Amino acid sequence: MAAKKNDKTKLIIVLVAIVAIIAVLYRMGIFEMVSIENMQKLKVWIEGFGALGPVVYIGIYVAAALFFLPGLPIALLAGIAFGPIMGGLWALTGATLGATAACFVARYAARSMVEGWAQTNPAFKKIDEGVEKQGWRMLMITRLVPVFPYNIQNYAYGLTKINIVTFFVVSFICMAPGAFAFTFMSGAIVAGESPAQIMMYLAIGAIFFVAVSLIPGYLKKKKGIEAA
């Protein structure tokens, strides 16, 4: 009885926090800007923070992971705002911290609510069964091959038995190729007027994408890991 009451208290706190954060983000105009069409506006807004720009960007990525905002525009934004290399690093950091935050919320703060989502979403069940059979390798596969959407994965893994530290480390490593692929592609947009530089960025981004597509097949062949 006490446990249920404690769960309800946690849920209320989480819901109040979510409403407060959403209100702040709405007032700041983040929801309107988080789209491919408004990427330039978001870039200018982040650059206005100067040296704190990367911190603001990472905060936006964390918020996107927690509130199911589209991640693609934010990932592309990193390459435009910070360049392909530093942008890739900030995008990867934001994606990993956001994923871990969502996993943590699902496991400790809003488990009852997330379990309710899981009952109507078969993806949650598949991930849970995959972790039971393959452990952290299931996370590795779903990060390298986005069979399940990024936001759903983050909350789904919070209901599994995977260790939070393992979740963080594996996510960071396995999301790196995708993060840098996006930032090198988007970085080509602001590479300047040099066609050679633009082609170089596009080529490096393409290499990352190819690597992401080949790694799962290689792992499956070598270790017998089955994708979901």
UniProtKB/TrEMBL annotation:
Top-level taxon: Bacteria
Stated family: Belongs to the TVP38/TMEM64 family.
Principal subcellular localisation of the protein: membrane
Record-given protein name: TVP38/TMEM64 family membrane protein
Keywords of the record: Cell membrane, Membrane, Transmembrane, Transmembrane helix
Locations listed in the record: Cell membrane
Native source species: Acetoanaerobium pronyense
Membrane topology label: Multi-pass membrane protein
Transmembrane portions of the chain: 12-36, 164-192, 198-219
InterPro entries, A to Z: TMEM64 (IPR015414), VTT_dom (IPR032816)
Signal peptide (UniProt feature, chain positions): none
Location of the VTT domain: 69-185
